[in-house]
Amino acid sequence: MWPVIHAELTKRKLQSVDAAAALKLQQGGKAVLVDCRPEYEFLRQRVAGSVSAPLFREVQGKGAWDNIKRAVMAVGLAMTATERNPDFVEDTKAALAAAGVRRGTKLILYCGLGGTIEVGVKPWAPNRTKEFKDDPERMFGRESRSLKACHDLLVEGGYRNGDVLHLKGGIGQWRFDGFPIEAGE
Q1: Burial class of 115 by CB neighbour count within 10 A (0 to 12, 13 to 18, 19+)
Q2: Which residues have C-beta within 8 Å of that of residue 69, sequence separation ≥ 6?
Q3: Domains of the chain, with CATH numbers?
């Protein structure tokens, strides 16, 4: 599925912004940061002033498969079992309305990782002169929750190109750059 999402985001020329540009847009009232990580991660720590719109949610079902998924994730991986939120687009619109986000405000989506639709990677080196354009590991960029969320809002949510942006490096880069974070509730 990711190659299809990557192709659509590339075709639509999704723009990624760095943390400094995102903060400037946020402080100027031109954008709101939208956290698409699961709610428990948002509650633990988030970009200051961001809105929660989880692309994934805790497993809701009570069937045998749902219980197995919860048990394996909890015991085997010490993680909370999640599933794709089928109501993501509607939940996002409701969360934005509840936060008082006015129409025309740009949405900058972020997750923990950030991901990228850029292909090829530049390995770390002091001179950074070598670029691998045909790296099979980055043939379709690097998938992330925030990129999938951008896709859903652009394709299913009726948002236009330029109304939805992607935060490079996610909350990890935001935190590393020393920008405002809120913790706990």
Answers
A1: buried
A2: 59, 81, 83
A3: 2-56+85-183 (3.40.250.10)
pLDDT of 88-145, one tens digit each? Answer: 999 999 999 999 999 889 999 999 989 888 886 555 555 555 454 555 556 788 889 9
How many angstroms separate the Cα of 36 from the Cα of each of 67, 85, 136? 24, 10, 27
17 phi and psi angles, rounded to 5 deg? -120, 150
Structural tokens at position 51:
């809105």
Whether the CA torsion 128, 6, 96, 45 is positive or negative: it is negative
Q: List alpha helices for the chain, DSSP H.
A: 2-11, 19-27, 39-44, 64-71, 77, 88-98, 145-155, 170-176
Question: What are the phi and psi torsion angles at 116 (to 5°)?
Answer: -160, 150
> pLDDT tens, 9-62?
999 999 999 999 999 999 999 999 999 999 989 999 999 999 999 998 777 777
Instruction: State the pTM of this model.
Output: 0.83
The Cα 123–Cα 28 span in angstroms is 35
